[in-house]
Amino acid sequence: MVSGIGRNCRLCSDKGLGVRGFKTAENGNHVGATNTWFTPRDIIRSLGVFDLDPCTQSFRPFDTAKQHICEDMGGDGLANPWQGRVWLNPPYGKYTHRWLNKLHAHGNGIALVFSRTDTRWSQEHMAISDATLFVKGRICFIKENGIAAGTASNGTMLLAYGKDNIESLHNIEGVVMVNKNPQVAEPGGFCLNDARPPI
Question: What dihedral do alpha carbons 125, 69, 75, 187 form, nearest 10°?
Fold first, then answer.
């Protein structure tokens, strides 16, 4: 099990480690110095093997899946078809919901996103995913060289789509909420009867 608070930065304690150039997605229009923050290897290992990572970079410090769609090489994970079990660490900001909508439609994978339970996209996807893990502590994203970038400025949650992905969430310390009856979302819309665009 990945520990919630670790000295080796699998998941970091909240001891003043700042993330340089990183801003929170307060209004969903996240704009920081970069939108590239790689997932720690221990999280990927704890969740098992993935077939596809549709939104990564060619300069990633390690492989997160068997196949990758790399934005810096001209890949477009939103336009390309997905297959198999998907790992999704999408760019945070006003398009987060588009990535999550595609993962929901695909029906097989896990997404790592900020634990922003106050946003409409978060409310929608907690309602339509099969399970949500609220990760204990704050994770340390890593840079392309594999070195920790510092502690994230917000908590993290993992959203599981597809019943087979629920069990692997228990390999990471935190609170898992299983959705016994996931709601059905309108195509491209929100299941909360809210016609406004996501925050």
Answer: -20
